[in-house]
Amino acid sequence: MALLLSDLVDRPDLHLSVAACPEHLDRPVLAAHVSELVRPGPWLQGGELLMTIGLLLPMDVAACRAYVDDVTAAGAHALALGLGRDLPHQEAPGPLVAAAREAGLPLLTVGANVPFIAVTKAVFAAQAAEQRAAVERAFETQRRLTAAASGGGGLTPTLDAWTSATGVRAHVTDPLGRTVATGSDGPREPDAAAAGLVRRVAVGGLRSSAAAPGLEVQPLGARRLRGMLVLAGDPGPDARLLISGLVSLLSLELERRHLADEPERRRRAGLLGRLLDPSITAEQAADVLAGAGLAAEAVRGVVVEAPGDEAAREIAADLALAVPGGLTRTRGALVEAVVGEGIDPDAALTHFAPGCPAGIGSPVPAGAARTSLREAGGLLGLSRTAGHPVRARHDRSSALLLDLGDRTTLTGYADTLLGPLDAADPTGALTLTLATWLDSGSSWDETARRLGLHRHTVRNRLDKAARLTGRRLDDGDDRFDLWLALRARRAARRG
Predict the structure, then answer these.
(1) Which phi and psi angles does 454 have, rounded to 5°?
(2) Tell me, what CATH number does 479's domain have?
(3) What are the pLDDT digits (tens) for 189-245?
(4) What is the CATH number of the domain that holds 218?
(5) How many CB atoms lie within 10 A of CB 324?
(6) 93 and 21 in one domain?
(7) How far apart are the first and last CA of the chain?
(8) What's the total number of domains in the chain?
(9) Is residue 316, in this structure, part of any structural domain at all?
(10) What are the two backbone dihedrals, phi and then psi, of residue 339, each rounded to the nearest 5 degrees?
(11) In this predicted structure, what is the pLDDT of residue 395?
(12) 412: how many CB neighbours lie within 10 A of its CB?
């Protein structure tokens, strides 16, 4: 409890009397300050008991009113006038009492032979006792939190003990922001404001935190981000002392879970090895997926190139947690994973493997998982160049290959073959007609339909394109050269 004016008045050793506004003795005393200035306001911070003997203060109505207004405006909670035989006043002057009543400022008098230092010591002794009591309460609450955490019940008992002690609701999310544990009265999912803070901490990692009115998010984990603590409420001074301890206890539990999951991760890595066996049948592949708890008609492979073997093991463990039913294993610095077709691994890769080259294979039947995984591994080179995970798409296989090429070489090849068309027709109509014809399977009618032209116009344009490029449209190799030049130009423009 904070020290109140009434507590000071009740102390017999201080000989304090109330001269004005006894109804306001419930104000807390944050400090005791002595000043003989006529305008002490600039030297106050608020909440003080200001003590004076009135040495320089004229005891007329105007001067006392100005003095009290200055003290009140500065936030002082009370005024104390020292009395004594050798002091300017032996009782509270009427103008000062009237001014204090008018302003609603409690006016106390300090009895003779009571030095101001005695009042100051009493104030700061009470504050020290309150701080000591707060620390003792914090230690006691910390013991309760530790007991809850050591009971083997997981995260929820610790969160319940925290809320019971502080009144602040709390829940824990995984690094992707999904709620994994909550107190008995906590939210099952973060609201929009909390979700935004969670995303900020997820990006910032262990060295970050985020706060908004009534919300606070703290990272959890030792060496890697294992989750986030979301606090909903306004922690008071006592609760603020405990947040770091709560974070430590929850981090230890998440790290314990991480270590305890190691045997299961090894088992699932073994399942992945069986799934990738070249001799596996479709029925056996289905059995492997069932053993992994992965109900999916199709799967896709994911390959990540980590900075080192240790980083690969950490990423594999994170992906195993983040992707429900997914199977992961490591081969040196490579992380291989097989996930259900309905799972989008991009978000997990962004969080757990930022900056690492990664390929995502096409969805295939479970028995062909090794094909998708091989496809994902083949995309690592493109991912290194692109700077982000690359997903295989059957309708863009040629584009993926062209994206691996040097931009200058691609542009030079396309310009060499298509340059005569550019020079003869700056509008690009000839090039567009040729590209549409090749994309439509060399169909004159389909090309005419797509471009809204007469069939004879299409034929005339293509004949002209053949003459300018020196290529025969009825020759397969020449058609491939033209198609490749057009795709190379598209790839160069994308780059």
Answers:
(1) -75, 150
(2) 1.10.10.2840
(3) 556 778 889 888 988 888 899 999 989 999 999 888 889 999 998 888 778 888 999
(4) 3.30.450.30
(5) 12
(6) yes
(7) 67
(8) 4
(9) yes
(10) -130, 160
(11) 42
(12) 13
Edge-to-edge strands of the sheet including 215-220?
179-182, 169-173, 227-232, 215-220, 210-212
Query: 3-state DSSP call for residue 227?
Result: strand
Domain identity same for 309 and 285: yes
Residue 472's φ and ψ, nearest 5 degrees, are -95, 125
**CB-CB contact of 190 with 179 (8 Å):** yes
- The pLDDT confidence band at residue 400, using thresholds 50, 70 and 90, is low
Which domain, by its residues, includes 231? Answer: 149-260
CATH number assigned to the domain comprising residue 333: 3.30.70
Tokens read off for 318? 């994170």
Query: Cα(65)–Cα(53) distance, rounded to whole angstroms?
Result: 17
Q: Which residue has the tokens 């009434």?
A: 6
Place of tokens 């100051």: 120
pLDDT in tens, 59-85: 999 999 999 999 999 999 999 999 998
Q: Are residues 187 and 241 in the same domain?
A: yes
What's the sign of the alpha-carbon dihedral 368, 370, 376, 378? negative
Task: Tell me which amino acid residue 429 is.
Answer: A
The CA-atom distances, in angstroms, between 37 and each of 51, 60, 92, 194, 421 are 11, 16, 18, 50, 93
- φ, ψ for residue 302, nearest 5 deg: -135, 130
44, pLDDT greater than 90: yes
My answer on whether 358 and 437 are in the same domain is no
Residues comprising the chain, all counted: 495
Does residue 219 lie within any of the structural domains?
A: yes
What are the residues whose beta carbons fall under 8 Å from the beta carbon of 385, sequence distance 6 or more?
403, 404
Query: What is the secondary structure of 163-196 as a DSSP string?
Result: HHHH--EEEEE-TTS-EEEE-TTS-SS--HHHHH
CB atoms within 10 A of CB 39: 12
Q: Report residue 213 as tokens.
A: 């009115």
Nearest residue to 367 (alpha-carbon basis) of 301, 296, 278: 278
Indicate the residue type of 251: S
Q: Are residues 412 and 365 in the same domain?
A: no
